[in-house]
Amino acid sequence: MVARVIPVDPFDLVIFGATGDLARRKILPALCRRFGEGQMPEGARIIGAARSEMSRDDFIEMVSQAFDEFLGAQAPDAAQRAAFFERLDYVAIDAMGDDGWTTLAGQMREDVVRAFYFSVAPSLFGPLAANLGKFRMITPQTRIVVEKPFGNDLQTARALNHTLAEFFDETQIYRIDHYLGKETVQNLMAVRFANIFFEPLWNARFVDHVQITVAETVGVGGRGPYYDKSGAMRDMVQNHLMQLLCLMAMEPPYKFDPDAVRDEKLKVIHALDPVAPADVVRGQYAAGPETASFADEVENANTATESYIALKVGISNWRWKGTPFYLRTGKRLRSRVSEIAVAFRDPPHSIFGEDAPWKANLLVIRLQPDEGMTLKVMIKEPGPGGMRLKNVALDMSFAEALGDDLHIPDAYERLIMDVIRGNQTLFMRGDEVEAAWAWTDPIIAAWQGSADKPAMYDPGSSGPDEALKLIHMDNRSWREIR
């Protein structure tokens, strides 16, 4: 199956922080793949901007090395590189001062989309926005892309929103969460709103509970200093898992429109119940035979920051009241997996007797690594000798269903092209970000006022035992991480 490619309009894309890890690992490779797929028009240009003094040729050599380092066997060949590199330029720039801005402004064209990607620390968002205004680079066709973390709490998120609003309209601000660019995450909306047989069951009457799991095998690595100030709650729950929860719980928007979709997500966040301390478990990975502990990796022996978190979340609205959502995410776990599991209730009466080996229907949406869906249903086990029931999986792998040759784009490929198109559906709105922090802040504040530390867990496990107790108290169990 061949994916349909729709070219975008000509654009000038400036990547601030173009020599940084995110640009080298994700942004520039994503742009090269979109170029290779024929999605970039002849008039597209990409300008790297960073503090480092380097020539255009030096920048191109750096990008080429990044392709080899991060793409491996999927790196573009010499011909594609040469064609892509014709689109590249570089400007050395001082985000906090005036150096380089006149040169950058001189390269901007008047008749094309201007996109500025802030692949930098949040402390530079304001200075960059101010300089774009000072040097007259903001036009009606200007868009900015800002990476997380968008604030560290409600107060800082509001301050960032206020700063950006001084120079840009909300329709020009693209707060990127790469989870929303994943093909399977977008499929959540297709599964829910393009298939009528799910809708009558998608409520507290028929759904017993929902589990959202994002497990990683890696530790914090080189992100130690950042992660010690952030933790899993700020780094993962407030944004990534919150977005997955919203897509699962939201009402159908009146149409597939950026504000219509985000309006419904915002309603979910406003309906979230406050989380009681007893419904939160924090964990921290210990040292393993070949791995350092979390405390060692963040270089803080007394750290009370969590590398794992599990929560029980309630939603107080007509659709979901009484159905808990269990969220968990952590590092140094048994395997790398992201999935959403919708556990349906048992039938009100079993005609096969009380001793039948009954298992509830389960819909599992796999986000990574094997994108697809599984629906577990009860059937009769083949053979004579009575009505014996068996739980089987109706399994669909995207790779198998759509063809092994189908390239599933990286999240950044989709999201950057959406910026150029001016489509904000998969980006967070300012009030949505603030609402998420307003729900998150009291949970974090309760920890800061407590002497309790995260529970320790072994690397390569499923997390701390306390997380098992959290769900076992409700006579439920986590899906195995494997």
UniProtKB/TrEMBL annotation:
The record's keywords, sorted A to Z, are:
Carbohydrate metabolism, Glucose metabolism, NADP, Oxidoreductase
Q: What is the protein's name according to its record?
A: Glucose-6-phosphate 1-dehydrogenase
Q: Where does NADP(+) bind?
A: 17-24, 51, 148
Q: Which residues form the Glucose-6-phosphate dehydrogenase NAD-binding domain?
A: 14-187
Per the record, its GO cellular-component terms are: cytosol
The UniProt record lists the EC number as 1.1.1.49
| Catalyzed reactions per annotation | D-glucose 6-phosphate + NADP(+) = 6-phospho-D-glucono-1,5-lactone + NADPH + H(+)
Top-rank taxon: Bacteria
Tell me what gene encodes this: zwf
